[in-house]
Specification:
The chain has one domain (2-31, 48-71). It is 28% helix and 16% strand. It contains 3 helices and 2 strands. It is elongated. The chain starts with 5 loop residues before the first helix and ends with a helix. The relative contact order is 0.10. Keywords: Transferase. One of its GO terms (molecular function) is CoA-transferase activity.
Length: 75
């Protein structure tokens, strides 16, 4: 119902996007509307776990540490 609200539609708060896996989806647009610099959604949120290794390495986890976490089903 919220996606069909006249005010939501008038403000173009719902945008259609082509998702690489799901196909065409509806997504929420930015609530910030600037006349000279319009906003645009540039990418989708990562899949669950997609960046886990990169994040753990940035926190100084070693490959061995990460493997242990995976083996223990912590990540």
């Amino acid at each position: 119902e919220a996606c069909e609200d006249p005010q939501i539609l008038a403000r173009n708060m719902i945008v259609k996007m082509d998702h690489p896996i799901l196909g065409e989806i509806q997504n929420l647009a930015s609530p910030i509307k600037l006349s000279r610099t319009p906003t645009k959604i540039r990418s989708f949120a990562p899949k669950m776990g997609q960046n886990t290794e990169e994040i753990l390495k940035s926190l100084n986890y070693t490959d061995d540490d990460i493997q242990k976490l995976r083996k223990s089903k912590i990540v």
